[in-house]
Amino acid sequence: MRRLTCARFFLLVLLSVSAVLAAQKEPAPRPNVVFIFADDWGWGDLSAHGHPWLKTPHLDRLAREGTDFHQFNVLNPVCSPSRAAAMTGMFPSRFSIHQHFAAPEQNQARGMPDWLDARAPTAARFFQKAGYRTAHFGKWHLTNRNTHGAPVPNAYGFDEFAVFNGGAETASADLHATPDNAARFIAANKARPFFINVWLHESHLPHVPTQVSLEKWAHLDAQKRVYAAVITDGDNAVGRVLDALKSAGIEENTIVIFSSDNGPETTAPKSQLSSRDDDAGVTGYGGYYSIGSTGGLRGEKRSLFEGGVRVPFLVRWPGHTPAGATNNSTAFTAVDLLPTLCAAAEISLPSDYRGDGENLLAAFHGQPVRRTRPIFWEWTGKAAEPDWWPRLAVRDGDWKLVLGATAQRVALHRVTTDRAEVVDLAQENPAIVARLTQLALAWKSTLPTSVDTSCLSVADRAAAPGAPKAPAKKASIDRAAAFARMDTNHDGVLTLEEYVAGLNGAANLEQRFKNFDKNGDGKLSREEFVTPSAK
Question: Is the whole model's pTM more than 0.70, yes or no?
Answer without folding.
Answer: yes
